[in-house]
């Protein structure tokens, strides 16, 4: 029986530390369970600053080593679409409710995990399960929709609290399942509304980039939101997109195609 492998890495931010660990293990993002061992801190006036530290553990047998080959060219725009988890390619706008009998292990374990977390946080809310519409040939993820009243605190500024809640829920559920849990956490349709806003914004900024004939940069966004913008403009005939920057300053740029 093949053993799992584990590696610990440090970097200025969590995403960079995860990427470094994936490179060392030689596996894809969906093949590991990520644990945040230490959050990054800027310290006070630069004193006491510390880097992010994470542990990556393979949830499946490692792939056999491939014979050395010359490095292939890295197309920037194509790689952009692979920078986030596969399930985040799904569209939440057309997520559909499902019967209890249709739920698989991911949905059941994810819902139980999230409900327990909410109880421990003393948040009065219910969790409903929906099925998102998958993009391309991906497996449609389960959407765990938190419903209740006065839940804005679970979303946080720019969705940061919601992102953390989703991360913890996935981490615990993935440990239970011994593989990556195919779930997305949302609060009262926040991500659905945000997805629609981002798609409209992407189209407007693409028109602006074409009219001005120069690259247009959007505000810094978390990985999920950048992914929405990239997918919204993936088939646009006049522009391409690329993510630039590091950590929480990473943002999408919209680049007019040369004629």
Task: Outline the structure in words.
The strands form three sheets. The protein has a four-stranded mixed beta sheet. It is of the alpha+beta class. It starts with 5 loop residues before the first strand and ends with a strand. The chain is globular, with a radius of gyration of 19 Å. A hairpin with an 8-residue loop joins strand 5 and strand 6. The longest helix has 23 residues. Helix 3 crosses helix 5 and helix 6 crosses helix 7. It folds into three domains: 60 residues, Dodecin subunit-like, CATH 3.30.1660; 103 residues, GMP Synthetase, Chain A, domain 3 (2-Layer Sandwich); 65 residues, Ribosomal Protein S8, Chain: A, domain 1 (2-Layer Sandwich). Helix content is 34%, strand content 24%. The chain is built from seven helices and ten strands.
In short:
The chain is of the alpha+beta class. The protein has three domains: 1-60, Dodecin subunit-like; 86-188, 2-Layer Sandwich (GMP Synthetase, Chain A, domain 3); 192-256, R3H-like domain (Ribosomal Protein S8, Chain: A, domain 1, 2-Layer Sandwich), CATH 3.30.1370.50. The protein has helices at 14-25, 76-80, 105-120, 152-155, 160-177, 190-212, 223-232; strands spanning 6-11, 32-38, 52-58, 91-97, 125-133, 142-148, 183-187, 216-217, 239-244, 251-256.
């Amino acid at each position: 029986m093949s053993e799992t492998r584990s590696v610990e890495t440090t970097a200025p931010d969590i995403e960079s530390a995860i990427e470094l660990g994936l490179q060392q293990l030689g596996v894809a993002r969906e093949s590991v369970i990520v644990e945040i061992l230490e959050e990054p801190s800027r310290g006070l006036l630069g004193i006491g600053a510390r880097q992010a530290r994470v542990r990556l553990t393979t949830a499946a047998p490692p792939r056999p080593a491939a014979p050395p080959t010359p490095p292939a060219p890295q197309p920037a725009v194509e790689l952009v679409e692979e920078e986030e988890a596969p399930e985040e390619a799904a569209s939440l706008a057309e997520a559909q409710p499902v019967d209890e009998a249709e739920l698989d292990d991911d949905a059941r374990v994810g819902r139980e995990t999230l409900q327990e977390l909410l109880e421990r946080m003393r948040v009065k809310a219910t969790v409903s399960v929906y099925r998102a519409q998958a993009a391309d040939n991906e497996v449609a993820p389960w959407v765990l929709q938190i419903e209740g009243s006065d839940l804005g605190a679970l979303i946080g500024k720019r969705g940061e609290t919601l992102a953390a809640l989703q991360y913890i829920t996935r981490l615990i559920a993935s440990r239970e399942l011994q593989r990556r849990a195919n779930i997305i956490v949302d609060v009262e349709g926040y991500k659905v509304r945000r997805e629609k806003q981002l798609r409209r914004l992407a189209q407007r900024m693409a028109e602006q980039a074409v009219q001005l004939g120069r690259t247009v940069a959007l505000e810094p966004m978390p990985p999920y939101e950048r992914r929405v913008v990239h997918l919204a403009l993936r088939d646009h005939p006049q522009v391409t997109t690329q993510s630039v920057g590091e950590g929480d300053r990473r943002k999408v740029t919209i680049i007019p195609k040369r004629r």
